[in-house]
Structures are given as structure tokens and as C-alpha cells.
Specification:
Chain A is an alpha/beta fold. Chain A is built from eleven helices and 15 strands. Chain B contains ten helices and twelve strands. Chain B has an eight-stranded parallel barrel with strand order 1-2-3-4-5-6-7-11, surrounded by four helices. Classes of the chains: A alpha/beta (332), B alpha/beta (299).
């Protein structure tokens, strides 16, 4: 890729979504295996080794890269699935693996030195010395930066790290430092860090009470909706809580992150790649969002005004509302 | 099987933003009266709080050392600014034992002996071995870790020490955004340090009235106090050497004496529980994580 090119990194939870992302103009597609080794371990999603091999071939024939997320933290004495996932990603011809756990990074560095390593957002590396730790010890070539930094901080940080930076462009807003949030396991007993599922569907219940719809996670009520109000999924950091006698979205409103209007700023900040979230979303979603960002990036590369139908993305946004999240400091 | 190593009692870093003089007086009393072996000083949650306690820091550290306590300097769980990095660099240059809570601190220590705090994920032997080879002399295990995992991680790694929090609200997440400020319709950059209004944190209740989480600035804690009593023996057998009390807004000297008696076999868990209950008002106790269950459960 030429310097200054913004690479478009797109999600695939299924082989169909992978093909949709490639066809819509993804530069790279990220995906994971169908088990606890990736942070989107939800029923009906992800790839077996044969599907990954076929998907990689499909992508490579069309000039698109495949990144495999192996970005959870093995439980003690049980690292075998993570090691196997690394071996299978290498065997499938993946272009890079996205890792978070220090033990997994160490194994990958020793066992598969030639397999390119990216640092997952789950490693929560939000500053230069932390990124240097992973760069120096594990020869990490790219860091996926946490969704907690402003554009000014991104610019300063990227200038210091000497490796590529990938940032979140579209999807949900993660207000917590990722990879070390135990809210979901506090409520459900299942660990996002080790089992790869935050707010697992098996623990979600919706029920009606006094004309309102309640959403519950593991028996704890996370929200109450008026008739007709859109009922968002009960993720702990997206619930309504009462403080000072008032119910509010204490952590984050039901909004989507969208930086399509900030592409020139992110390019100027030295960002290498933009990540679109949504491995749990449909192939139609992937197709539309990737296509929209592709057109915006192509326009940016030509120096043309970003001729993007913003309404198109609005339809896909969580809660139908958008934010630039932490990229603007007032968010904090 | 070898006899378990002697059980060390530690006082974890104060997570809440207490007025500086109150904080100083708290540590003076700890120095004089609490039977703890080590005290963690230093700010973990928010660097905006640090300047307030700064003038008292050296005096408090000296008083604790004179009283025979090991002083460990805890560092921030989420580091982003140049000033925060410089502060860690300065602390490291001072030669004290540091608790690293962001991998940045491990990098800046460049192999010098240190404690790995509970905000750095050490869930398995691979991560443990890598960090021990780079200077970790003690590892505070993640709050979420079940006993079965501790048996693997804390075993057969002497002379590395392992610490587990056995008392106090459990840290569940850290963020850039300040929820304390947000609940007062402020932002982090103009927060007026409203986190100081709640000496034991601010309760967040579900919309149907269940007290569930505690907000402490940018940090979210369990509402329930994590309390491990009957589990202390199993933890020692698993190889845990250090037992952490996390300061709450109550008589921590009494809590320390009670845990010292428990660890020394002078008091049983069944007798300790009602004492702790009587000190804790309506706050529920939780211990689910250690048992591999919902963290909010009491088993």
C-alpha cells in the first residue's frame, strides 16, 4: 500500500459476510474461529478451519487480506485451543493474526515468527510505552488502538510508536478499557476475556411489566423501555442505571460510532487502517457499510469531497444515532 | 507437600478520592495499628487526583516504613498522557517497588523488580512466565480468576509471590470517561473532582431498584464487597502468599486485625463473618468469581 493510503478493515462473522466484504471493496477482512479463542464467540458465527482456508483463497484471489482474531485470554492450563487456532491460521495462509494475551503472543512469536502479528484492542494498549512493550517483545507490526483516545492524542501517539495504527471507524462505542472489563462476568459468570462473549444471548431475557419492556442480563435488569421505544440489546455498559435518583445511560447512550466525516483528520493523524465493527451483523450490513466507506475513501484518495450518502450509514447505526465517541475530547 | 508460605496481609491502594488530610490520617493509623505487612500507596484511578495528596506522600511512606511495613507504589490502571508516563518514570527512578497496572509501567521498569497489579491480565502460565522473566516478583491475580485457575498459575513458580484481593469492592472496569462527572452533568476535563463526594463510591442502581455497581470516577466497582473468608485456606494451598484488603470507608484497622487472626488460625470464618457484616451496613457480600460463578453471587 502506498504511504497515506487508508486501509479498510472489515468484519466477517460468516463465509457469506466475508465474500460480501471482499466484493464491496474491503482491503482486509478479519474473522475468527468458532470457539472461545476470539472475542465474538456467539452461536452461529465464525469459521471452521476449512471455511477459513476457502475464505482466504477467495480474498487472496481478489487482492484482499485476511486477518484472524485470536484475541481472548486463555484460562490457566488450557491454552491448547489458542495454540491450535494460531497453527490453523498459519496453515490457512492468513496474512496476520490479531492477538491480545501475553502468553499467546509469546507462543506465536516463537512458533510462527513469520506470521504477522497485530495487537488487538483487547490488549488495551493506549500509550507509547505499552505499545513499545508489545512491539519490542513480540515484533507486533500494528496496534488496534483503544476507542478511548481523542484525535489529538492519536496524532501524538502514532508519531511515537513506529508501527502501524488501526482505529475504529464504525460500529459500537466501547466506553470501557477493553479486554479488562468484568461487568458482564459479574452479572453472568461467563467471561468475555476468556470465553469471548460479552452479554451472551443465553443469559438475556426480555419481559413485559406494567406496560414496559424490561431487558435483563443474568437476572439483572439493565433497561426499561416505554411502548414503542427501540429496545437495545442489554450489554452492561449500555444499560440505564439510577444515580442521584435519576435513571440515565450512565456509561454510554445507545449510539453508533461513525467517523465517516473525520476521514481527512484520521489520515492526517497518521492512521494506517480503519476498522469497521460488526462480525455479529448480517452480510447485507457488511455489504452496505463497507461499500459506503469504500466510496468515501476512494473520494478522499482522489481529493474529491466525500460524496457519501450519510443517511445510508444512519440506517445501520445502533439506535439510529451517531457519535464520534472519544475522538472528540468533550465525550469524556 | 510443603507447608504453605507465611501469609502476608497487604492493604491495597486506596481507590476512592478522600480529602488529602483524611487520607494522611488514615495511613498514619494504619502505620500505628494495622497488622499488615505491606501497604500500596499511589493513585490507580485518575491522575487528576494526584496533586492533592502529593505533599503528604513522602511523610506517609516514611511513617509506614518506620512501622515496618513494606511500601509499594501503585501506578495508574489506564495511562494516556505524557505527564502520566513521566510520573511513572519518576516513581521508577526513585527505586521504590512499583505496582504496574498498565503494561506501560512494565516497559518503563525495563526488567527492574516490580509487582504486576490486578489491572494487567495474567490469566495463564504463559503470561505469568513472560512477566516473571521481566522482573515481576509478585503478581496480583485478576479479580475474575476462579480458584481452579489460581491453582495452576500460583503453583510451582517460587520465588514469585501471588496476591489475591480478599476484602473490598472488586474493580470491574476502567475507562477514559468519568462516570462520576457524567452523573453530575459534567465532563472529565471539567469534573470539579466530584468523585470526592463519595468516600465509598457512588451507588448505581438498576431501574427496578437493585443496588448493583459502584462508580468511582472513571472506575466501575462491584457494589457488593468482595469477601473471601472460608476460602483463605484453599487460596494458601493454591500458592497464594499475599492477601489484599482494599480500603473501604470503615474501620480498616479492625478489618486488618480480623484477617490477621483468620490467617493465623486464631479465628474461624464463621466467627469472622458476623463481625464483618456488622461493620458493613446494607452492603451485600460477594465471592462468586473465585467459585467460577457470577461475580455478584455469595456462595
Amino acid at each position: 500500500m502506498s504511504p497515506g493510503y487508508l486501509e479498510l478493515v472489515c468484519p466477517a462473522g460468516t463465509p457469506a459476510a466475508l465474500r460480501a466484504a471482499v466484493d464491496a471493496g474491503a482491503d482486509a477482512v478479519y474473522c475468527g474461529f468458532r470457539d472461545c479463542t476470539n472475542a465474538r464467540n456467539y452461536p452461529g458465527l465464525n469459521f471452521d478451519p476449512d471455511e477459513l482456508r476457502e475464505g482466504t483463497a477467495y480474498a487472496h484471489e481478489r487482492g484482499c487480506k485476511i486477518l484472524v482474531a485470536i484475541n481472548t485470554f486463555p484460562r490457566a492450563g488450557a491454552a491448547e485451543p489458542w495454540h491450535r487456532a494460531l497453527d490453523q491460521a498459519a496453515a490457512a495462509g492468513a496474512d496476520a493474526v490479531i492477538l491480545a494475551d501475553i502468553g499467546v503472543l509469546d507462543y506465536a512469536t516463537r512458533r510462527h515468527p513469520g506470521l504477522r502479528r497485530h495487537l488487538s484492542v483487547q490488549a488495551a494498549a493506549a500509550n507509547a510505552p505499552s505499545i513499545a512493550f508489545y512491539r519490542d517483545n513480540f515484533d507486533v507490526k500494528r496496534v488496534v488502538l483503544p476507542r478511548v483516545l481523542s484525535v489529538e492524542e492519536l496524532t501524538a501517539l502514532i508519531g511515537q510508536i513506529g508501527i502501524e495504527a488501526e482505529v475504529f471507524a464504525f460500529g459500537s462505542v466501547g466506553p470501557m478499557s477493553e479486554g479488562r472489563c468484568f461487568l458482564s462476568s459479574y452479572l453472568t459468570g461467563l467471561s468475555p476475556t476468556s470465553e469471548g462473549a460479552c452479554a451472551p444471548a443465553s443469559h438475556v431475557v426480555y419481559l413485559e411489566r406494567d406496560g414496559r419492556l424490561l431487558s435483563k442480563l443474568g437476572g439483572t435488569t439493565l433497561n426499561s423501555f416505554a411502548p414503542g421505544e427501540p429496545a437495545a440489546y442489554p450489554t452492561p455498559c449500555k444499560g440505564r442505571y439510577v444515580t442521584h435518583g435519576r435513571a440515565s445511560y450512565l456509561f454510554e447512550e445507545p449510539v453508533a460510532l461513525n467517523v465517516v466525516n473525520m476521514l481527512p483528520e484520521l489520515k492526517a493523524a497518521g492512521v494506517t487502517a480503519l476498522k469497521i465493527e460488526g462480525r455479529q451483523r448480517s452480510k447485507a450490513y457488511v455489504s452496505r457499510v463497507v461499500g459506503t466507506f469504500r466510496r468515501a475513501l476512494d473520494a478522499l484518495a482522489r481529493g474529491a469531497p466525500a460524496a457519501v450518502a450519510l443517511d445510508e450509514l444512519k440506517l445501520e447505526a445502533e439506535g439510529g444515532r451517531e457519535t464520534s465517541g472519544a475522538y472528540h475530547k468533550g465525550w469524556r | 507437600m510443603n507447608a504453605p508460605a507465611p501469609a502476608r496481609l497487604t492493604l491495597g491502594p486506596l481507590l476512592f478520592h478522600w480529602p488529602p488530610k483524611r487520607r494522611r490520617d488514615f495511613y498514619h493509623r494504619i502505620a500505628d495499628e494495622a497488622p499488615v505487612d505491606a501497604v500500596y500507596l499511589g493513585e490507580v484511578v485518575c491522575s487528576k487526583r494526584e496533586p492533592q495528596f502529593g505533599p503528604f506522600f513522602a511523610d506517609v511512606a516514611a511513617r509506614l516504613r518506620t512501622a515496618g511495613k513494606e511500601v509499594v507504589i501503585s501506578t495508574l490502571a489506564l495511562v494516556t498522557t505524557a505527564e502520566e508516563i513521566a510520573a511513572i518514570r519518576d516513581a521508577a527512578a526513585g527505586g521504590a517497588l512499583l505496582e504496574a497496572n498498565d503494561v506501560a509501567c512494565v516497559q518503563l521498569l525495563a526488567g527492574a523488580p516490580h509487582v504486576v497489579g490486578p489491572y494487567i491480565n495474567v490469566f495463564n502460565e504463559g503470561a505469568r512466565d513472560f512477566l516473571v522473566a521481566r522482573g515481576a516478583v509478585r503478581i496480583v491475580l485478576p479479580v475474575e480468576m476462579p480458584l481452579a485457575s489460581m491453582r495452576t498459575v500460583a503453583a510451582a513458580a517460587a520465588p514469585t509471590a501471588f496476591e489475591v484481593q480478599v476484602y473490598g469492592r472488586q474493580p470491574l472496569s476502567v475507562a477514559m470517561r468519568c462516570y462520576h462527572a457524567r452523573s453530575h452533568a459534567l465532563t472529565k476535563d471539567h469534573c470539579q473532582l466530584v468523585c470526592g463526594l463519595d468516600a465509598d463510591g457512588m451507588t448505581a442502581t438498576t431501574v427496578d431498584g437493585v443496588e448493583i455497581l459502584t462508580i468511582n470516577g472513571t472506575q466501575t466497582l462491584s457494589h457488593g464487597y468482595g469477601v473471601l473468608l472460608a476460602e483463605l485456606g484453599s487460596l494458601r494451598e493454591a500458592g497464594v502468599t499475599h492477601f489484599r484488603l482494599s480500603p473501604q470507608n470503615l474501620d480498616m484497622v479492625r478489618v486488618a486485625k480480623l484477617y490477621r487472626d483468620l490467617l493465623d488460625g486464631r479465628l474461624g470464618a464463621a466467627d469472622a463473618l458476623p463481625v464483618l457484616r456488622s461493620m458493613s451496613g446494607d452492603v451485600p457480600f460477594v465471592n462468586g468469581f473465585l467459585h467460577g460463578r457470577e461475580g455478584m453471587r455469595w456462595l
